[in-house]
Design goal:
The chain crosses the membrane at residues 38-57. Helices cover 44% and strands 12% of the residues. By secondary structure, it is α+β, with helices and mostly antiparallel strands.
Length: 183
């Protein structure tokens, strides 16, 4: 049942209600804008900090770039590798590429990338008549240096059947790296 004397809202009541409603909506929009700005600022800070940290971590030190090399077992960055280098900074390295090639040639010379024992590949690599493993010197394949994204040189064997064997730039591009910088 409806009251017999309902009080009807006046125009002033409607204006106050409208003003309160608009004020509430404005406050909510302002709060939302502030929250979005805070999230955007935090995201930008994290992005810059993450990018800086990534650049700092992924870029090798100057000593590592000149004194170290990654030696790979095959012409692929997915192949087995070892890192070689000198623990001390050596003065007077004229060409880091030549130094990296010499380090990796030594790795191949001691047969670091030995095929499984008893395999046909292993039998073909062992020098004839060698009885003492300490005196063995294994064949070193032709080697090619390329530069990794972190600035350290990567040295790969270049097999005769490689179509890019005669073109260092094409070889490095085929393994997904850049040709080395020679001073």
């Amino acid at each position: 049942m409806l009251p017999t004397d309902p009080q009807s809202p006046t125009d002033g009541d409607f204006e106050r209600l409208e003003e309160r409603l608009l004020h509430t909506v404005d406050a909510q929009l302002a709060h939302r804008r502030h929250r979005h700005r805070a999230v955007l600022a935090a995201s930008a800070v994290l992005l810059v900090a993450g990018g800086s940290a990534t650049a700092w971590v992924t870029r090798a030190t100057p000593e590592l770039r000149t004194m170290s090399a990654y030696c790979y077992a095959d012409a692929s960055t997915d192949s087995v590798f070892t890192q070689t280098g000198s623990p001390d900074a050596q003065a007077g390295i004229a060409d880091p590429v030549d130094a990296a090639m010499a380090k990796c040639a030594a790795v191949w010379n001691i047969d670091f990338f030995t095929p499984p024992s008893g395999s046909a590949a292993e039998a073909g690599r062992r020098p004839e008549g060698a009885a003492d493993d300490l005196l063995l010197s294994y064949p070193v394949p032709d080697l090619q240096a390329c530069q990794r994204p972190d600035g350290v040189l990567a040295v790969f064997p270049v097999w005769a059947d490689n179509p890019d064997a005669d073109d260092p730039d094409a070889f490095c591009a085929a393994v997904g790296l850049q040709p080395p910088y020679r001073p």
